[in-house]
Amino acid sequence: MGGWEGMLTRQFAAMDPASREIFERAAGGDLPTFISHYANAFGFLQSILLTLFTSLSVFALGWFRPQLSWPSRLNIAMGVLTAGTVVGLLLLPTMALPNMFALVWISPAIVVLAYFLTTLRGARGVIADTLSGAWIKSIVYTIVLILLVLLSGLVLSLICAFHALTSMQAAT
Question: Where are the transmembrane segments (predicted)?
């Protein structure tokens, strides 16, 4: 089993039994079907929701430099997100490693670093006039971006769980 379904199955298997039992009860004892429906919704909605939420970071760029045009803000945001996405995709195979569940925080931390370094590299002269301003605005922008990513992940998880549960109820 591969894809999101395989990854979720491995993560549930590595989960502590008490937490896994909560999901099994919510799924009516049929965790594999729940995971299958969840993974289908996740694969479809992840890029859509993540793009929608992270595009909101253009407002943060507007706080830093109000005279930046909307296309410029969007261009900067997408440039930073592209760097983080490339790094994240390169790290994705590590999530499938059997013992990686305990160190699941490493990949997101490296992506956050990529967001920060990409923003810092291009900030001076665009969203900040000084080096210290570039550092501060890069830190703030990275925090805003990560909060948006986390919020999109929360919304995505809720939608996928709702989809999985309603799909399972409809099948019975």
Answer: 41-64, 76-94, 100-118, 139-165
